Amino acid sequence: MTEGSTIPSPRAQTIVGAGVLLVAGGMAFGALQISGEAGYGGVGPNFLPWLCTVVLAICGAWLVWEARTGGYREMSEASGHPKADIGSFVWVSAGLLVNAALIGTVGFIVSCTICYVLAVQGLRRAARQPQAGSVGTWVKDVLTGLAISAPVFWAFTQFLAINLPGLTGTGWL
Amino acid sequence: MEIFDALLAGFATAITPANLLWALVGCALGTAVGVLPGIGPAVAVAMLLPITAKVEVTASMIFFAGIYYGAMYGGSTTSILLNTPGETASMVTAMEGNKMAKSGRAGAALATSAIGSFVAGTIATVVVTLFAPGVAEFAVKLGPPEYFMLMVLAFTTVSAVLGQSALRGMTALFVGLALGCVGMDQISGAARYTAGQMELLDGIDIVLVAVGLFAVAEVLYAAIYEGTVNETQNKMSRVHMTARDWKRSWPAWLRGTLIGTPFGCIPAGGTEIPTFLSYATEKKLAKGEDKAEFGGKGAIEGVAGPEAANNATVTAALIPLLTLGIPTSNTTAVLLGAFQNYGINPGPQLFTSSAALVWALIASLYIGNIMLLVLNLPMVGLWVKLLKVPRPQLYAGILIFATVGAYGMRQSAFDLFLLYAIGILGVVMRRFDFPTAPVVVGMILGPLAEAQMRNAVALGEGSWWIFLQRPMSLTLVVIVALVLIVPRVMRRMAARKLASS
């Protein structure tokens, strides 16, 4: 691995391979609880789960082996920087998770605006915008967030009659 | 004559004012998502799937087809004008298109790609019109073993042929198949992998996976890795082609269409192979001065051919979708999901059971192509303005639409947490170079393939030999084996040849 390469380290590759093995383990655990009742066809509902278990286990082990012997084969460079920007990731994640937690109580418009604001602040930081975090950008982002989520809410609830949660029962907020 | 009558009836449905409006909105929206980085047609259709609950089936299918089509037109605009192509389909267009734009010929490149898309799209629609009913008639005769093998063929080509590594492709495919296992088993009704959660009994929704894997992952990826990536935009020039441009473009359009159409027809997804093949053909056929432009000033054939091939493939891909119910790309997989939301299973019966819908859809493709030509030639300047939307705001805005798509389906906050988790999975897959199409295709096609397989084995009274005992099924087994073996043997032979020289 050369400096500046976006190809993840062998250690990270091993972790991903191990993750696939873990998924295979989870699949096996779940497959044990599915009945093997095959009927007259000879193939029961647990066949595909076991097939996935076995293939994923083989793939996981193979990935770990590749990672330990010089890294994944035929990798192409991913786009972007070699190093992850964890701070920005936390901002965007916070936006998404807060949205999931609040949408049922504060309604679509407010919840999505919060999500938008947190995400855009994170992305501004990622882009190294000097004005990120200033009062001006916060105000601007809140207004933009409202300007996107409110019409989206109205379009979907009023015109398409799709159920989205509101803060009030009016269908407008 | 029968086809012609059916098509006329289709036109009668498609040109009602309401349906024309749906087509226009779909085409415009599709062009916009094609131009904008971060969202592609698969995500756009996925995010709008909740409308299937309210909008009538013909209207929504016309709308989705418009998005599907429009995105192909829009995608080429971005790849010609920006130095970073959005999706693999426009990567080839970007190679020459970008060079043309850099030498001040962006307008000609945009024109040849829009007209080429129109020519190829229209010819391929004619092919769909003429051949889809025949394929459907033939497909009625196929039994579960043949269906299962066709799906295996789709799985094999999506996972093992596309992408860099067959191992990572297989891993992605089986992750998709595993996701498809969650929920109630279709045949026996047994619950699988639900962990006692009622929400999981219906299975994981395709909207969640598509939106999470593409839209949310794209936003997270941009925040983590692409914050300060600089993008330069090439200068626009007048959208105009000289007589020489026309002379060089039209054979390339036709050749591209000829290469692209068959690739779309077979259940072997992806536009990568036909576009690259068309590019290679054009480069080989070019002579003298024209050839010198390849890789230098940018050759117009190198834009015209691959663009036509791309659109022809995408259009013809509707044949396996409509007649066999087999999706060969992310977007067609999501379209299949849209049909399923209406309780319609695309397949050979579709042409008899929902004839009005199918023919209205096909008629709308002709109309959509004309709309897109108008939207993309005189109005291209308007779309170019979309490229000026600042990235932080654009990406954060995508999250709002992602929420609508994911939450609008079932109104469950649980789904939004799941959406985030799938987004993280998407980031890891992108960084570690795992292809994502096999996940979506595996997830949608998995349960269908499983049902066909179990029916097939039941048909063989418990014997797996049934797949080798029927001629058509046996042929498909051989094809799958060839698809797996031939590229590897050829690669090895090429390597040996290289080593010896």
TrEMBL record, chain A:
> Membrane-spanning regions, if any?
12-35, 47-65, 86-119
**Keywords of the record:** Membrane, Transmembrane, Transmembrane helix
The answer to whether the entry has keyword Signal is no
DUF1468 domain segment(s) = 15-165
Q: Which Pfam family, any one, appears in the UniProt record?
A: TctB
Q: What is this protein called?
A: Tricarboxylic transport membrane protein
Q: Which organism is it from?
A: Acidovorax delafieldii (Pseudomonas delafieldii)
